[in-house]
């Protein structure tokens, strides 16, 4: 019989996707015999968050009118498995709400953001947000938030923070790690995911701050999620600690006592965490609010029966300073009070005034974030949209298309040169480096793949197109097998028939997440495949591509071609569709799971390629491999495939026994009795066998035998991740720092170099100093370890092949310093000495780092992690804790700081220094202030020099440099003069200039906090920075960089720096706009112009003269402005800058030195952009004119007319053609026609343009 105790909210999981509330109640009644459907009230029903769940299910929250008897038996039970006959999967009913719980459904087309709520210490994930009392019908996150912000999806995050009698010893970092992993597991790193907003109460806020720091320093997925977090609200979060004395009594002597200690007011953990978090906030565009309680809270009291209740003396649990990080003292709108106690401050009732405040803050966060998100999406869309014209420009494009050259004729020599340039433009240096470094198959392993039972032979022999999927566990030998298949002659004998008239072509791409960008990106895949296809028959296939490009661009000049992903994909599709050369193609793609983008995208790509050849004369077979992720199973479940570990039992045996035989008679005889156990525990993972045998071999070489070796083997975990932990923890403490540096450098995501032995030694040496002078000295005289005697401890752990430590090695290390101090990148080392030294590095890192044979173009071996799983382990959230234990919290350096120091003192190439400082701030939340401030004044010219050259200088700019007088203390970004001539001068530069040039927000903030007068007193120039070079950066990265630079500019001007310090700053920006104007052929250049105009806007609003004159030199022959003298209003194209200039009193019809008005300039640019593609010479000069620019130009003209602009030098025919375009696009034309009629009153109403002409 049902009972009616205190009403409880339940969660029901695994509801069918097509089920509504009524059906869910019915299904539940079938599972609970004493329950009728009308006794169940479904409060919410939403689709499960897991994007890979198949079939998808729903999650409901519900209450019972009377609680079923079957749910009241055991008070400690909080989950029930409920079989229902008509369902394949049982329903799951629970009250713990662990993990994610979506509370509402949002229609895809209107879905804008996801709001995740994280509860506090010893609280319930659902109940902590619900008002107290018997009525459980209202819960504001579920019922009010979706109503007020319909585009939001409310989500609860539940985790175990029980205090009394808890068996859990998890730390705050553990909870945060689980949160991060769950966010990733539910696909918030996918491109289709929505931005995040967080609500965090009490401990939940500390967990969130820890999660933010983990994502910042973690992998690409984590940083993507962090960059797409809009903001949130922190409710009573004890950033500086809270009163915990009453809580200590509850946990004293328990394993969870540490978590309470970490929340105390004197917690070192909270201090370090907040320092890191503060820096991260400066480098992101989040909007965060901090709510604080204004009522006393009852503390916890223990009763005689041993139970605890909140009936103790009242106290302020989280003071205002702690809850707001002292922001409330500044009276900023980011802090607000809630007149409740600590627990009740998030338990809002209906129509609660505090709830209305909270919802208004969420609306502001959503509005602010949506603007950034939409802008970012627009920038991102520019790099992913198809090559066709947008609809509003299509009519104009079709008209121009008719004017294009319809025929292309070249002599043979020109054709050959064009093909050669094409091949060169898509060639990837080191294309086969990954293939070369993959281990060869051992002996006769993998020979079975060419047996009939594997299925591959039949698939290769079968005519037509298709795909074959090889999947398996991590480190099970997939890449080695793919290399074996690709290089085996038998593969080609099975594929190609001699009777066929098709051209056989093979192409391979081995994704490599530990490699450079082009080894793991979509662009790299397309370039590599295209390059291999064209090389196979360059005369025919290369010519086809050149003809295709020429017909679209009227040019065959490919020498400096910068390819977009869309263009590469279009060329590949074109080759697959073309009919002039019949192709029989075979693609081999390894490790799809190491692609650096959305795995959904690469799945769709493979399917799309197969669709292209479906109705073509050409055939395509794709053999690919990956881990068996759910996303791949979803897309490829119906393909022919094999699971690798099901076939490799004999291979493991051969590899194991063969490896043992290679170790010599003495060691092999000791290891052979253990071989059966190793083979049985391997579970198809070759790398596990390799590492185990290496450890056993070392122990056998040190004298262990029989039972002792068995004990070593028994202590080794089967799981690779656990084994890696054991390996790292066994690294001697004296070498942990060096090992940490090596792991950090090799896992730094933005590195673009194949590091060699010399690089590692120098980086490790530089890492030991926090000052520039110390790093420079260490660079000149590097040492792998602190003292030569340190090698003694590594000696006994050497492999048998290398033997024990020798006196010769000590002599070698002494000589090594002399060689390295010469400052040269390469030097000669005897092969025996080099191998010995590499062995020491390998031993120091527990065998998780290896030296592979030199890649093409290099003379020395490259160092890398032994496997992708090691990369995943060493970028995990717990790696630093595994490496350093309790000291982990005091280690703030990471790969970026190590590389920043190294590149700062390196003599020959300094382009990396600034970017590594920038990424260190973004990943650590800290600055390298101590290091930067230690750079001597005379060193800044060398460090900053690259930026002087970087600012898009032509040879003409650089040719003026010798005539500029130098002094010992001036150097820096390009100075562009005004008045009568263009001059280049060298700016005063120092640490602040270095920081602004590289967008080091945290350094600038640290400097201001230490000396509020620093910007007012400085003599450095700080307004001439330009973020990043445009070349290799994706659009969304550039958008973020430009936004950051403008944020820094406002920060400087708000805190003491003035435009009077750089009177020519605005002129430089305006001339830079002109300099880029002639080469605006790519959307990223257009983004750069938007950034420059926004910068000009800020400078003018902070005091720069809006009417300053700019003189363009006559030698700017490429420019439509050559020889002109004009003002900012003449070249402004954005509405914001135009409005700013008018507000500052600039006349909208200000003439230049020859009488041209701003509207004349706008018409001139539009005409130039519109018709330049009809002239081959101009097309080569300005490359490709984009439709976005044309649309912007049309908009600028319309807005200038709206603000009262007119013309004096624009031809009537140009006006007529512009009116025609406006009419075709369906834009408002009345104001434009009125202006036209005023200028040309004798002209009849413009109707049919052809009649007018």
Q: How are the elements arranged and paired?
A:
Elements: E1 10-16, H1 21-31, E2 40-47, E3 57-64, E4 79-82, E5 91-94, E6 99-102, E7 113-118, H2 140-143, H3 145-148, E8 152-158, H4 172-185, E9 196-201, H5 203-217, H6 220-227, E10 229-235, H7 245-251, H8 257-261, H9 268-282, E11 287-293, E12 297-298, E13 301-302, E14 308-309, E15 314-315, H10 320-324, E16 335-338, H11 353-384, H12 394-401, H13 412-426, H14 433-437, H15 456-461, E17 466-471, H16 478-487, H17 489-495, E18 503-510, H18 522-536, H19 538-553, H20 565-577, E19 583-590, H21 599-612, E20 619-626, H22 630-636, E21 640-643, H23 649-661, H24 665-671, H25 675-682, H26 686-701, H27 707-715, H28 720-729, H29 736-747, H30 757-767, H31 772-780, H32 791-794, H33 807-820, H34 831-844, E22 849-852, E23 862-865, H35 868-874, H36 879-884, H37 895-905, H38 911-924, H39 929-933, H40 940-950, H41 955-959, H42 991-997, H43 1001-1010, H44 1014-1017, H45 1035-1054, H46 1065-1077, H47 1083-1101, E24 1110-1111, E25 1125-1126, H48 1128-1131, H49 1135-1143, H50 1158-1171, H51 1176-1182, H52 1187-1202, H53 1212-1225, H54 1230-1239, H55 1249-1252
Parallel strand pairs: 7-8, 7-9, 9-10, 10-11, 11-16, 17-20, 17-21, 18-19, 19-20
Antiparallel strand pairs: 1-3, 1-5, 2-3, 4-5, 6-8, 12-15, 13-14, 22-23, 24-25
Helix pairs in contact: 4-5, 5-6, 5-9, 9-38, 11-45, 13-19, 18-19, 18-20, 21-22, 23-25, 23-26, 24-26, 29-30, 29-37, 30-31, 30-37, 31-37, 37-38, 45-47, 46-47, 47-49, 50-52
């Amino acid at each position: 019989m049902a009972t009616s105790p205190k009403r409880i909210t339940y969660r029901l999981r695994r509801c069918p996707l097509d089920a509504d509330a009524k059906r869910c109640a019915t299904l539940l009644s079938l599972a609970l015999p004493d329950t009728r459907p009308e006794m169940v009230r479904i409060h919410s029903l939403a689709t499960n968050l897991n994007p890979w769940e198949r079939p998808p299910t729903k999650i409901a929250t519900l209450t019972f009118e009377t609680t079923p008897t079957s749910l009241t038996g055991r008070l400690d039970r909080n989950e029930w498995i409920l079989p229902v006959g008509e369902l394949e999967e049982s329903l799951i009913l629970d009250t713990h709400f662990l993990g994610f719980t979506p509370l509402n459904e949002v229609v895809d087309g209107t879905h804008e953001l996801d709001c995740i709520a994280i509860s506090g210490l010893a609280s319930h994930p659902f109940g902590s947000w619900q008002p107290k009392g018997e009525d459980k019908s209202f819960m504001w996150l579920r019922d009010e938030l979706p109503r007020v912000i319909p585009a939001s999806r409310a989500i609860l995050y539940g985790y175990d923070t029980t205090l009394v009698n808890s068996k859990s010893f998890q730390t705050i970092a553990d909870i945060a790690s689980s949160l991060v992993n769950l966010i990733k597991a539910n696909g918030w790193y996918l491109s289709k995911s929505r931005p995040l907003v967080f609500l965090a109460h009490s401990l939940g806020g500390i967990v969130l701050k820890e999660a933010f720091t983990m994502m910042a320093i973690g992998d690409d997925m984590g940083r993507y999620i962090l960059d797409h977090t809009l903001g949130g609200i922190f409710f009573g979060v004890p950033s500086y600690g809270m009163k915990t004395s009453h809580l200590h009594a509850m946990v004293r002597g328990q394993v969870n006592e540490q978590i309470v200690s970490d929340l105390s007011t004197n917690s070192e953990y909270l201090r370090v965490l907040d320092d890191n978090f503060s820096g991260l906030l400066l480098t992101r565009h989040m909007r965060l609010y901090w709510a604080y309680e204004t009522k006393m809270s009852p503390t916890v009291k223990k009763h005689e029966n041993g139970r605890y209740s909140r009936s103790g003396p009242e106290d302020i649990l989280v003071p205002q300073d702690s809850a707001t990080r002292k922001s409330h003292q500044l009276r900023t709108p980011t802090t607000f009070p809630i007149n409740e106690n600590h627990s009740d401050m998030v338990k809002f009732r209906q129509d609660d005034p505090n709830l209305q405040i909270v919802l208004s803050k969420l609306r502001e966060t959503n509005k602010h974030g949506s603007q950034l998100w939409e802008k970012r999406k627009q920038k991102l869309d520019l790099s992913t949209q198809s090559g066709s014209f947008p609809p509003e420009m299509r009519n104009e494009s079709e008209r121009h298309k008719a004017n294009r050259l319809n025929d292309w004729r070249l002599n043979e020599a020109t054709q050959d040169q064009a093909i050669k340039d094409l091949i060169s433009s898509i060639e990837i240096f080191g294309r086969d480096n990954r293939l070369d470094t993959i281990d060869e198959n051992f002996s006769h392993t993998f020979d079975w793949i060419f047996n009939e039972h594997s299925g591959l032979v039949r698939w290769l022999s079968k005519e037509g197109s298709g795909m074959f999927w090889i999947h398996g566990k991590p480190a099970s030998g997939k890449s080695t097998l793919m290399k074996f298949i690709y290089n085996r002659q038998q593969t080609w004998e099975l594929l190609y028939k001699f009777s066929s008239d098709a051209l056989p072509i093979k192409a391979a791409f081995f994704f490599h997440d530990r490699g450079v960008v082009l080894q793991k990106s979509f662009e790299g895949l397309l370039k590599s495949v295209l390059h291999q296809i064209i090389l196979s028959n360059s005369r025919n296939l290369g010519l086809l591509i050149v003809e295709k490009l020429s017909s679209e661009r009227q040019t065959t000049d490919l020498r400096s071609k910068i390819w977009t992903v869309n263009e590469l994909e279009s060329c590949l599709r074109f080759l697959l569709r073309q009919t002039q050369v019949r192709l029989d193609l075979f693609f081999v793609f390894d490790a799809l799971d190491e692609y650096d983008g959305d795995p959904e995208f690469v799945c769709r790509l493979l399917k799309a390629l197969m669709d292209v050849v479906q109705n073509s004369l050409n055939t395509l077979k794709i053999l690919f491999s990956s881990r068996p992720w759910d996303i791949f199973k979803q897309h490829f479940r119906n393909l022919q495939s094999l699971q690798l570990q099901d076939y490799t039992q004999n291979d493991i045996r051969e590899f194991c026994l063969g490896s043992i035989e290679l170790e010599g008679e003495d060691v092999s005889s000791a290891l052979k009795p253990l071989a059966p156990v190793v083979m049985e525990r391997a579970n198809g993972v070759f790398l596990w066998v390799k590492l185990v045998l290496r450890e056993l071999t070392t122990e056998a070489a040190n004298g262990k035998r029989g039972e002792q070796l068995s004990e070593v083997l028994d202590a080794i975990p089967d799981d690779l991740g656990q084994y890696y932990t054991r390996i790292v923890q066994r690294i001697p403490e004296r070498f942990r720092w060096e090992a940490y540096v090596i792991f950090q450098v090799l896992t730094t995501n933005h590195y673009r170099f194949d590091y060699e032995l010399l690089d590692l030694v120098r980086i490790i040496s530089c890492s030991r100093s926090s000052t520039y002078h110390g790093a420079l000295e260490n660079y000149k005289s590097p040492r792998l370890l602190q003292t030569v005697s340190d090698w003694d401890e590594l000696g006994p752990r050497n492999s048998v092949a290398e033997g024990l430590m020798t006196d010769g090695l000590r002599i070698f290390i002494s000589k090594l310093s002399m060689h390295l101090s010469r400052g040269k990148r390469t030097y000669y080392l005897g092969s025996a000495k080099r191998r010995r030294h590499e062995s020491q590095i390998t031993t120091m890192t527990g065998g998780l780092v290896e030296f592979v044979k030199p890649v093409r173009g290099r003379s020395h071996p490259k160092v890398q992690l032994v496997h992708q799983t090691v990369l995943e382990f060493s970028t995990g959230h717990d790696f630093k804790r595994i490496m350093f234990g309790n000291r982990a919290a005091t280690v703030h350096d990471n790969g970026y700081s190590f590389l920043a120091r190294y590149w700062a003192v390196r003599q020959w190439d300094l382009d990396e220094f600034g970017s590594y400082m920038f990424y260190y701030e973004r990943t650590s939340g800290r600055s390298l202030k101590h290091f930067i401030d230690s750079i001597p004044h005379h060193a800044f010219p060398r460090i900053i020099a690259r930026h002087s050259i970087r600012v898009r200088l032509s040879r003409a700019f650089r040719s003026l440099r010798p005539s500029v007088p130098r002094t010992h203390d001036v150097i820096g970004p390009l100075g562009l003069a005004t008045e009568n001539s263009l001059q280049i001068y060298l700016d005063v530069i120092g640490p602040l200039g270095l920081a602004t040039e590289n967008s080091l927000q945290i350094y600038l903030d640290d400097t201001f906090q230490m000396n509020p007068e620093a910007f007012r007193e400085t003599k450095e120039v700080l307004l001439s920075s330009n973020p990043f070079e445009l070349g290799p950066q994706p659009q969304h990265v550039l958008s973020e960089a430009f936004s950051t630079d403008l944020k820094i500019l406002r920060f400087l001007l708000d805190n003491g720096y003035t435009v009077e310090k750089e009177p020519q700053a605005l002129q430089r920006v305006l001339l830079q706009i002109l300099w880029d104007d002639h080469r605006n052929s790519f959307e990223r250049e257009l983004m750069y112009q938007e950034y420059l105009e926004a910068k000009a806007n800020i400078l003018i609003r902070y005091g720069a003269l809006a009417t300053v004159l700019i003189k363009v030199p006559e030698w700017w022959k490429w420019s439509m402005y050559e020889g002109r003298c004009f003002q900012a209003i003449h070249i402004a194209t954005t509405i914001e800058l135009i409005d700013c200039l008018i507000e500052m009193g600039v006349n909208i019809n200000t003439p230049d030195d020859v009488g041209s008005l701003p509207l004349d300039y706008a018409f001139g640019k539009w005409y130039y952009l519109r018709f330049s593609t009809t002239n081959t010479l101009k097309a080569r000069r300005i490359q490709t004119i984009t439709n976005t620019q044309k649309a912007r130009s049309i908009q600028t003209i319309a807005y200038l007319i709206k603000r009262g602009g007119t013309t004096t030098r624009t031809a009537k025919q140009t006006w007529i053609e512009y009116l025609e375009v406006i009419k075709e696009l369906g834009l408002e034309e009345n104001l434009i026609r009125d202006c036209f009629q005023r200028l040309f009153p004798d002209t009849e109403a413009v109707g049919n343009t052809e009649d007018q002409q």
